[in-house]
Amino acid sequence: MSTLALVADIGGTNARFALTDLAAPNVELHEAQSLRNADFASVQHAVEHYLQGIGSMPKHAALAVACPVGSDEIRLTNRAWSFSRRELQRTLGLDELRMINDFGAVAWAIPSLQRDSLVTLHGDASAPLRGPVSVLGPGTGLGVAQLVGSHEHGWHAVETEGGHTSFAPIGDEERAIAAWLTAQHGRTSTERLLCGKGLSEIDLVLRGGTAVVPATSLMPGESSLQRQGLRDPAEIVAAALEGHDIAARQTLARFCAVLGSVAGDCALIHGARAVVIAGGIVPRFIPFLRSSAFRERFLAKGRMAALLETVQIHVITHPQPGLLGAATALRSRDL
User: Fold this and answer.
1) 206-214 long-range CB contacts below 8 Å, 24 or more apart?
2) Which residue would you say has higher pLDDT here, 310 or 332?
3) What pTM value is reported for the model?
C-alpha cells in the first residue's frame, strides 16, 4: 500500500503542492510545485492539474487553506474559491482529507524547522523553543496562529483569525491611513495594512494619492493594482531597499512599525515566550526590519515592556513552511 500523501498550502495568490511519505522517519517534501491561483477556476482544478503533472494519485491529503476550516463548506478569504470538503474528497478519490488553516499549518511546521531556516531578531538563537509561541505573518492577508507545548511533551497548533482584529493606529500618520482605509472598506482590520495590498495602500496614502475604482476589464499588461493607482508591493520593497525612493522607505518603515505593534499585541494575548514571523513578505527585508521601529513598537506596551523583553523573536526563511506543516499535521492524530 502506498504511503505517499498529498499536501497543499493554498493562499490567496498561489497554491503550493507536494508529496510526503507518511512512512518515512522524518517529514520530507517531494515534487514541490507552486501554481498561480489565477490560472485555475477552482481548488479542485488546481489539485487535479498538479496530480496529473506528477502522475500520482495518493489516498491521503492535507490541504492548508487561507480561511476558517470548521465546517464542510470552505470559502477562501482572499480568493473567490469555495468548495465542499466532502465533495472534494469524493471527487479526488481520497480515503482521508484533512483541512487546516494556512497559518495553523505554519505553526505545525515550526518544531520541524532546522535552525538555518530561522533568523533570530531577538533572544538566544541556540535556546530551545518553548510554548506558547505566537505565529504571524503578512502575505496576501495576515495569518495568525498559536503553537503550544514543547519538544519534550509534544506540540499542538491553535488556529485563529487574529488578522481580522481591529487596527489600533498610533500617531497622526497611522490615523490618516486608518481613516482612508475605513472610507474604502467600512472598517480597518489589522490585515488591511499588514498584507501585500496593504503595503501598496499605505504607500498611496503617504504619497497623497487617491484610489481609483477599478474598471471591469484591464488593459493588456495592466494589473488591478495599477488600475487603482497602487504601486506593486514588490516594487515598493525593492525601491525602499535600493535607498533612493524616500516614499518607498517611508512606507516600508511604517509597515514594519505596525508589524511590531501587532506582534507585541499577539505576544501579550497568547502569553508567548516566542514570536515567529512567517509569510511571503518579511523574509525579503530582514535587515531593514532589524533597523526599523519594529522592536521599539513591539516593546511599547507600557507596564508590560519588561515582560516582552524576554520574548524571543524569529523570522522563518524556509521556502515552504505551509507544506512542511501540512505534512507534519497529517502525521499527527491531534487535529
Assistant:
1) 206/173, 206/177, 206/247, 206/250, 206/251, 206/254, 207/247, 211/184
2) 310
3) 0.88
